[in-house]
């Protein structure tokens, strides 16, 4: 997928066309991750459907939100942090990436899941680390 991202904005209409040709929500979600990575924007109706889906859809919802850096899904992400049987760390990743320091109160609602995220963001807030999160660092925690 990385090679598609390198095409940048000119690829978005073609990616949207491929996405629209898909019949499975999961496949549409995969394309949305790529589109959100390029554009920094998510399709709200698709993300809403992903958040209403099953675990694979929820994973994609978290990835889309993080890829877009969207601040529109905090309630859903907070709920996912406590969803039994779901890898809740994905929701914490999306909160940390999208909200940064502003996301600390949400991450602190599930401190055992977000210990490292909280520590890094608190250190950034206190000026002990350079500003700005590098997405790949958070995505591979835990």
Which percent range describes the beta-strand content?
A: under 5%
Number of alpha- plus pi-helical segments: 10
Mean pLDDT: 89
Helix/strand order: HHHHHHHHHH
Overall 3D shape = globular
Q: Radius of gyration, rounded?
A: 15 Å
Describe the overall structure.
This protein is mostly helical and 142 residues long. It is 63% helix and 0% strand. The chain has two domains: 1-70, no CATH class; 72-142. The longest helix has 15 residues, at 25-39. It is globular and about 45 Å long.
Notable characteristics:
single chain, 142 residues, 10 helices, 63% helix, globular
Short description:
The chain is mostly helical and 142 residues long. Helix content is 63%, strand content 0%.
Detail the topology: elements first, then pairings.
Blueprint: H1 2-6, H2 12-21, H3 25-39, H4 44-51, H5 55-68, H6 74-80, H7 89-99, H8 104-107, H9 115-125, H10 135-139
């Amino acid at each position: 997928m990385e090679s598609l991202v390198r095409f940048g904005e000119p690829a978005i209409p073609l990616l949207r066309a491929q996405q629209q040709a898909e019949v499975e929500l999961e496949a549409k979600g995969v394309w949305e991750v790529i589109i959100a990575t390029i554009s920094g924007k998510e399709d709200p109706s698709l993300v809403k459907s992903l958040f209403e889906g099953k675990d694979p859809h929820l994973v994609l919802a978290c990835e889309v939100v993080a890829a877009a850096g969207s601040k529109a899904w905090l309630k859903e992400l907070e709920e996912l942090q406590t969803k039994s049987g779901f890898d809740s760390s994905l929701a914490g990743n999306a909160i940390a990436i999208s909200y940064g320091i502003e996301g600390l109160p949400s991450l602190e609602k599930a401190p055992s899941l977000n210990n490292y995220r909280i520590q890094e963001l608190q250190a950034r807030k206190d000026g002990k680390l350079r500003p700005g999160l590098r997405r790949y660092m958070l995505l591979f925690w835990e």
